Amino acid sequence: MKKKAGLIAAGIAALLILITLMLSMVVTAEDEYTLIMRFGRIDRVKSTAGLSLKVPFLETQETLPRQILVYDLAPSDVITKDKKTMIEDSYVLWRISDPQIFARTLNRSVSAAEGRIDAAVFNAAKNAISSLTQNEVIAARDGELQADILGVIGTSMESYGIEILSVEIKQLDLPEDNKEAVYERMISERNQIAASYQAEGDSEAKKIRNSTDKEISIMISDANAEAARTIAEGESEYMRILAEAYNTEERADFYEFVRSLDAAKASLTSGKKTLILPADSPIAQIFESAEK
Questions:
Q1: Main-chain phi, psi angles of 255, to 5 degrees
Q2: Helix runs in 75-175, H state only
Q3: Which fold has domain 69-173?
Q4: In sequence order, what E strands does 130-289 have?
Q5: Helix (H) or strand (E) holding 26
Q6: How far is residue 249's CA from residue 259's CA, in Å, rounded to a whole number?
Q7: CB-based burial, 161-178: b 16+ in 10 Å, e otherwise
Q8: d(CA 138, CA 15)
Q9: 34 with 61: CB under 8 angstroms?
Q10: In this structure, what DSSP letter does residue 159 have?
Q11: CA dihedral sign, ordered 152, 79, 113, 50
């Protein structure tokens, strides 16, 4: 009986030791902080993944997320510098940068942190957009506006152990009741700009055409003058060659004979084969001389 009682006691002791060891083990995951609490207050924080120990029954543990978190803000109305209403819809990328400050100021509540983020981002967006006109807001929506919002937030969330990584705008649009009017005004402005560009282009094209026409006229005038000089030189050379070719009486008579034949040939048109000449015609005299 004593031996059996000893075995039971040893078993119970081993079980208690095992339970104590299990209660002493703390497993920290890769994406979380582990807070070791003693009498309800944070004693230490485990931020690296792995196994650690705590004092059982005296210390407890709680976890907080260590990964990047996303908070989607509800769409809200904002007023621009020129008193135009716009609807801003955005989301925030954030993380817990200091788990002890986070736990102390926000009671370890992620939903409480999202409430603080909501207020901070809404106010920052309101201030950033209120300093810009509607056209400036539209032009700055890709990157510049987010940087302005982060600039307004600054380091204000560090007092809660929170770091705002990015504010991304999903939608920045006009209310339905004045969207059509704004679109029409934008279309009208773009049409005016297009008409101005068209007028400038037409004016520049006219200048280019006038300049080109003037250059072409000068080139044609120069070409005609050069052609006239060339023709005159050619005719002069032609006359000189004729004068040299027919510088004797026999050559002159032959030239006159050839010219008379050409004239007679030109007179025989429209199928006529008969040439009637007066007796004193130079052509008739040439033919009489030829018959003799």
A1: -60, -40
A2: 99-106, 110-130, 134-139, 144-153
A3: Tetrahydropterin Synthase; Chain A (3.30.479)
A4: 162-173
A5: strand 25-28
A6: 15
A7: bbebeebebeebebeeee
A8: 69
A9: yes
A10: G
A11: negative
pLDDT (tens digit, 0 to 9) for every residue of the chain, 292 residues total? 666 666 666 667 666 666 666 666 777 888 899 888 888 788 888 888 777 767 777 778 888 999 999 999 998 888 888 888 888 889 999 999 999 999 989 988 999 999 999 999 999 999 988 888 888 887 776 678 888 889 889 889 999 999 999 998 888 877 766 666 667 777 888 888 888 888 888 888 888 888 888 888 888 888 888 888 888 888 888 777 767 766 666 666 666 667 776 776 766 666 666 666 666 666 666 666 655 5
Give me the residues paired with residue 91 across strands. 72, 168
**157-160-164 Cα angle (round to 5):** 35
Which residue type sits at 91? Y
* Residue 65 bridge partners (DSSP): 32
Closest CA to 94 of 119, 125, 72: 72
Which tokens in the block code for residue 103? 């736990």
Query: pTM of the predicted model, to two decimals?
Result: 0.55
Q: At what angle are helices 99-106 and 110-130 packed, to 10 degrees?
A: 90
Delimiting residues of CATH 3.30.479.30 domain(s) in the chain: 69-173
Could you give the angle at the alpha carbon of 239 between the alpha carbons of 237 and 242, nearest 5°? Answer: 110
A 10 A CB-CB count for 111 gives: 8
For Cα atoms 74, 128, 90, give the angle at the middle one, nearest 5 degrees: 25
What is the Cα–Cα distance from 116 to 113, expressed in whole angstroms?
Answer: 5
Fill in the amino acid letter for 28.
Answer: T
